[in-house]
Every structure is written in structure tokens, then in C-alpha cells.
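Fig. S4 source data, part A: sequence.
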Amino acid sequence: MPIKSYLVYPHEGRKSELIRALSQIIECDVMPAQNEELLILVTETDNKDEEELLKEKLEAIESLKLLSMVSGFNTPQNS
């Protein structure tokens, strides 16, 4: 189960729009930073296929300027 955290930068003046867009994606938890014009995003998916679909959803958001991964963790699957 991949869990990743990101710093997310909106296009100028579009922070609220970006928060709304990210909040509508079920795999995302978004929090605005208190002292900067950026957001903190935590994503959680069940597998690589879902991770790829999430990546496509994020790339389609027009108010998103930059997405910078801070950390990632993947729970090993038991065979």
C-alpha cells in the first residue's frame, strides 16, 4: 500500500481551487500550510495500478503548479 507525502504549489491565486480539486480525490488528504502559499498532500493507494491512476488525476489539475514528493512508503505484500 503506497503512502506518499508531497508539498504542492498552486498557480498564483488558485490555492482555494486547488484545495477543492484535491479534496475531491478519495485517495488524497490535503492541508494548507499556515505560513506559505503551499499545501501538504498525503496520498494512499492500494497498488501500483491505483497509484498510476492517481498520478494521472493529479497531472490533470490545472491549478496545480508543482508537486514535490517529500517521502514515500510502500507496505510489502505477503505472498
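Fig. S4 source data, part B ends here. The helical segments are 15-23, 48-59.
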